[in-house]
From TrEMBL:
It catalyses: 7-aminomethyl-7-carbaguanosine(34) in tRNA + S-adenosyl-L-methionine = epoxyqueuosine(34) in tRNA + adenine + L-methionine + 2 H(+). The lineage of its organism: Bacteria, Pseudomonadati, Nitrospirota, Thermodesulfovibrionia, Thermodesulfovibrionales. Monomer. InterPro entries: QueA, QueA_dom1, QueA_dom2, QueA_sf. This is S-adenosylmethionine:tRNA ribosyltransferase-isomerase.
Amino acid sequence: MRTADFYFHLPRNLIASRPLDKRDNSRLLVLHKNGDIEHKKFYDIIEYLNEGDMLVVNNTKVFPARIIAVKHSGGKLDILLVREVDKNGVWEIMCKGRIDGTVTIGDGVMAEVWAEGVKGKESRAKKFLRFLNIESSKVQDVLWQYGYMPLPPYINRMPDDTDKQRYQTVYAEYQGSIAAPTAGLHFTEELLNKIRNKGILVETLTLHVGIGTFKPIKTEWLQEHKMDPEYFEMKTSLLNKIQKTKESGNRLITVGTTTTRAIEAVFSMHQHGRDEISPMRPLFHGVDEGEMKSSFLTNQNGSIKGFADIFIYPGYEFRAIDGLVTNFHLPCSTPLMLVSALRGFRKILYAYKEAIAMGYRFFSYGDAMLIL
């Protein structure tokens, strides 16, 4: 399939720039397997979940990865921190324009920007930033003080303090993402408790959202696109619970495309007998390219850790999931291709056209879909 096949026109006024006051008051488009569509509120999702079903969420936590740096000339740089690459305070970054010398971040915190990669580890095309006068372990504290939440570029405003709470799920726990797993933004603690009280299992895993999730596809043909690896971790007990749920005839419903990719990556590995074991550094201590190529490991604490680089698009055979809670995605994006793989692009495109006609709010702060 061609990437251009996944294009659709979206009126700009339907891009949500801020969330609703109440998370679970978002609209919910329910897409059934036969193509039928229902229009609900998100809090109605409990009507479609049955006792014994399992709901799996991504409990990653977004950190304020966007910083505004000031050069000696007075010019400003808008920088996105992608990942820490070593213990010396060096981060891979994304920013427009040339970066040289030292810059000032926030209220006198100094940083030096590297325009070239670390020799022997990274591509010279990548850019790096080194924090000079703070310990590596203190960088996160500085970011929470001076940084901004990394809202997507289609939200045409500067992030504010409210985004530090609203661009975050209520169950966010483990810090490490540069974008929110947005399908989970609609849940409240009250709604989750109602779901649990109905006899539905609510389980968690962690996938730290990086550039792989939102990186644009630049290839003409889908199969030529390569996903950037994103770190994930889940308990081995979760796999056993998933298997028991499905053996009992109940459904596995994932919240978000990131949760889906983590589960499908593991189940795909098990189906093909790829139980690779390799050492891995702790999160935020940096990962070199050799380690990224090591698919998975099981540690002594009963967890599976690894890097998900699975690209799911039409033609993929799902190994585990039966349904998906998701937002409305960008044209020609990898999340749109994943949901199209689950229910077929024609049904997804029809649902999107109806959502547009009905005035649904799109993208990160927008409304939601339940694909059954």
